[in-house]
Amino acid sequence: MKIAVAMSGGVDSSAAAALLKEQGHELVGFTMQLWDQRRLINVDENGDPLPSRCCSLDDVYDARRVAGSLGFPFYVLNLEKDFDRDVVEPFIQSYLSGETPIPCVACNSRLKFASLDRMAVSLGCDKVATGHYARVEYDEEVNRYRLFRGRNHWKDQSYFLWELTQEQLSRAFFPLGEMMKDDVREIARTADLYTADKQESQEICFVPDGKYSEFIDRFLEHENRSDEIPEGGEIVSTSGAVLGSHTGIHRYTIGQRKGLGIAHEKPLYVVQIERAKNQIIVGEAEELDTMEFTAKGVNWISFDTPTEAVKALVKVRYRHDPTPATIYPLPDSHARVVFDEPQRAITPGQATIFYDIATAEEVVGGGWIIRDPE
Q1: CB under 8 Å to 373, separation ≥6 — which residues?
Q2: What's the CA gap between 314 and 245, in Å, rounded?
Q3: How far apart are CA 151 and CA 35, in angstroms?
Q4: DSSP at 125
Q5: Burial letters for 298-307: b for 16+ Cβ neighbours within 10 Å, e otherwise?
Q6: Domain 2-190 carries which CATH code?
Q7: 275 burial type by CB count under 10 A (0-12 exposed, 13-18 middle, 19+ buried)
Q8: Could you name the CATH architecture of 289-370?
Q9: Which of 45, 173, 188, 278 is deepest in the core (most CB within 10 A)?
Q10: Class (C level, CATH) for 231-283
Q11: What angle do CA 27, 80, 136 make, to 5 degrees?
Q12: What is the dihedral of CA 218, 87, 128, 198, to 10 degrees?
């Protein structure tokens, strides 16, 4: 087949390319230039750029080096404006509204995969391959493509792919879906690839130090939008008593315990962020437990939008163990999710994903957790 390969400059995409090349496929490699380092938004106290381990210029060079080593053509897609518009700005607005976003889902499905898929179609490619740990299968009986978790559950990345459409899944190819990480590195070593022992990125690519609120401050200042930086306000208890003050709602997240600056007989946690009142609401540990939430932008993969309730295993963040729940479809691509048992710190802005209740392997669908109206 003729396959478009997403090349991130990391070991996973490099090994995926090496594996496909060994199998005899015709490859065309693509790397996406997403974040403009020259804007100097991510700098330290001396004005020097903070090191980035994802989507940096070094990664572009590493991807080009791998493509050259394996002997297939390589191109760079400049998507900096799209990335700003579709990933960075929504990330900032979500934090400013009191949510805790996960931009990697939107980046993977709406930007990276969607852009590469369009390019692949224009070049006559049969498939779009990435280094994701996930699996796709075609079910002839129901004429539908099905998405599954990677065999390596610790590395499973199906959480980031639930927005893919049936058309996109028809071209998706995940060569590493059945593999363990050690096997992947061995493939890269056997192919003598420069990236074989490269470290993995653990942070959001455009926030290399992991300090999200500081990035937002720097970004808004750099863009002459300092007036959008949230002002300080009150920290109140769930009963409404004023307990202290905060320094801006974008500096807090649901479940946070440290940094509240409040002396109390029992540990207090952020249980709600109220943008309209500019308040951080805190409570004791048990007040973080929630039985249900609403999701928007729900995408059903296993079947068309159901008309009745669906029993599934549900995750509310990447490292959350899939937990039994009932999903009630609502109009306008919304759904109400009710757990069998209370779950801790369900956070607006995060992605939720639904797995088949029987196997815990197939992705039924997913959505975005939203704040319920009062």
Answers
A1: none
A2: 35
A3: 31
A4: -
A5: bbbbbeeeee
A6: 3.40.50.620
A7: middle
A8: Beta Barrel (2.40)
A9: 188
A10: mainly beta
A11: 40
A12: 30
Kindly state the tokens that stand for 216: 């937002």
Interatomic CA distance for residues 33 and 184, integer angstroms: 25
CA distance 212 to 94: 12
In order of 12, 55, 140, the CA distances from 175 in angstroms are 10, 21, 21
Domain ranges of the chain: 2-190, 231-283, 289-370
Q: Which two tokens stand for residue 262?
A: 């409040």
Q: Which residue type, as a one-letter code, is found at position 216?
A: I
**What is the distance between the alpha carbons of residues 12 and 187, in angstroms, rounded to a whole number?**
10
Q: Kindly tell me the number of DSSP H helices and DSSP E strands found in the chain.
A: 9, 17
Alpha-carbon distance of 371 to 348, in angstroms, equals 5
Closest Cα partner for 57 from 70, 69, 42, 46? 42
Tell me if residue 205 is catalytic: yes
Query: In this structure, what are the phi and psi dihedrals at residue 241, rounded to the nearest 5 degrees?
Result: -75, 135
**Which candidate, 251, 281, 293, 305, places its Cα nearest to that of 100?**
251
Residue 160: how many CA atoms within 13 Å on its side-chain side?
20
CA distances (Å), origin 201, targets 12, 41, 96, 98, 338: 12, 19, 25, 26, 34
Give the C-alpha distances (Å, rounded to integers) separating 135 from 73, 115, 213: 26, 20, 35
Residues 340 and 325: beta-carbon distance below 8 Å: yes
Q: Is the pTM of this model over 0.85?
A: yes
The two three-digit tokens of residue 325, written as one number? 């729940």
Instruction: Note down pLDDT in tens along the chain; length 374 residues.
Output: 999 999 988 999 999 999 999 999 999 999 998 887 766 677 666 666 666 655 677 888 899 999 999 999 999 999 999 999 999 999 999 999 999 999 999 888 888 888 999 989 999 999 999 999 999 999 999 999 999 999 999 999 999 999 999 999 999 999 999 999 999 999 999 999 988 888 876 667 888 778 899 999 999 999 999 999 999 999 999 999 999 999 999 999 999 999 999 988 899 999 999 999 999 999 999 999 999 999 999 999 999 999 999 999 999 999 899 999 999 999 999 999 999 999 999 999 999 999 999 999 999 999 999 987 64
- Name residue 76's amino acid: V
Residue 104 annotated as catalytic:
no
